[in-house]
Every structure is written in C-alpha cells, then in structure tokens.
Design a protein that fits this description.
Number of strands: 0
Radius of gyration: 53 Å
Strand content: under 5%
Distance between the termini: 148 Å
Number of helices: 13
Order of helices and strands: HHHHHHHHHHHHH
Oligomer: single chain
Largest sheet: none
Amino acid sequence: MDIEQTQEIAISEHARNLGMLAAQLGYEGSLALGALEDEVRFFQQRTVESCMEIGKRLLLIKEQTPHGEFNKRIEILNFTPRMAQKFMSAVLKFSKTNSSSLLQKAGNQTKLLELVMLDDDEIELLDQGGSIGDVNLDSIETMSVRELKQALREARANDEAKDKLIQSKDQKINKLDTELNKSNSQAQILKKQETEQQQLTASALDTLHSACLTMHNDVVRFTNAINSIQAAIEEHGLYNIQEQLEANVVAAFQQIAQTSVELAIQIDFTEMVNPSWMPQVESDASHFDATDVEQ
C-alpha cells in the first residue's frame, strides 16, 4: 500500500468520524471549516440558542484541527480557550436533557455558561423542576447573572458543608463500627479460648474417669482371683503356696504405693484402711500391757 492510498484511508476515516460527531450533536449544516467559522460569527450575535450552536461548531472545528492549532483558530474568532471550553461543555451537558425548559429559563449565554458548572445530575434535577439551594427554573429566569452566580456558589458551599458533615458522621460510625468489631472479635477470642479450655477440661476428666474405672475393675478381678486361690488352698490343702500368695499380694500393693509416690500424690494407706472417724476396734493384743508380759 503506497503513501497516497494510506492518506486517502486516513482522510476517509476522519471524514466518517466527523460525520458521526455531527450526527451526535444534531448538526446538519456544512462541515467545511470556513462555513463553520462563519456560522460561529453569526450565532455570536444571538442568545442561548446561539450558545448551543456555537458550542457545536467549536467541537466540530476542534475535531478537524491538528493538535496545537485549535487555540490559534478560536483566537481569530475572539474566543479564549477557557470561554471556548465553556461553550463546548454547554453543548455536551445540555444536549443530554430531553427538555428545553432549562435552556429557555436561562435566557442568555452568560447565565447558561454559569449553569455549565453544575453536575449532570444537578442539571437533570433543575430541568425536572427541582431545586439546588435557592436555584430553580423560576429563580433562574428572574435572577441577574450576579445573583445566579452567588446562589450557585452558596448552594455548592452548603453541599460541601453537608458532605463534610456526612463524612464526619461516617467517620464516627466507621470508628464505632471498628471498635465494636474489635470488641466482638476480642469477645469471640475469649469465648473460643474458654470453649477450648472447657473442651480440654472435659477431655481430661473423661480420661481420668476411664482410667479409674479400669483400675477399679482390675482390682475387683484381682480380688476375685486371690479369693479363688485362697479357697483352693483351704479346700485342697495347698498351704505350701500361702506365703507366695501373700508375698505377691504385698508386692502388688507396694506397686500401688510406688505409683502414688511417682505421681507425687500423698496417700495415707493406714487412714484409708482404718479411718480415724471410725470406732477403733481393739485387737486381742491390746488387752495385754507391760505388767501382763512381766507376769
């Protein structure tokens, strides 16, 4: 593809984009730069309608102007870049509204360009009959440019004050919410720790009860086995194993005593077998005293 074909494609694409912008703006006139500039001069003599028409043409001129040349062109038309931007912004903002009531109430370019500073939702609110502070469709029509400018400034200042108040309240709410969440979090941690402690306690007690029950059952079986052996000794005269039986029983209880020492749990076996609160049963030996032995 040669340079000439490339340029033709670029020009064709640019023309298509320009046509799409014109259709979007609702412009049906000539797109030639000279014609557009002449129309700007014509509409400069008119009011609100001319502001919108000027804005449309300035947008179209900007679309066709190489970067850096737009300001030079609008200076020839006696526009500053800031003023041209206001006209173009007016078109982009107010072309979105379906009703022309706001444009009609504005009455002149100066008021309209003051309204350009409003947000899209604020413009829609006014166009639908709502109010922004003291500004509404009726007041816009009767206010001077200075009064409108002051009213809009006050309305914006009030909105900023409200926003700051809301922001301050939100910050306080967020702070309280954070503190509450922190408090709840700490409570949940304590509850979790308490629950874990309870679970550990319950598990330890279950183990203890199981171990004690096992030992109790083993002692019962041990006692039954010893009784069975003693019965066999008496029945069959197996007195030769009596001493061995007694020695094994003593060894078993010594092991229990040693276990208590290893567990560091002091057990008074004498007190357990013969508690102090029980009446003492005197043995036969207790009837003998020293004089008896001497005799």
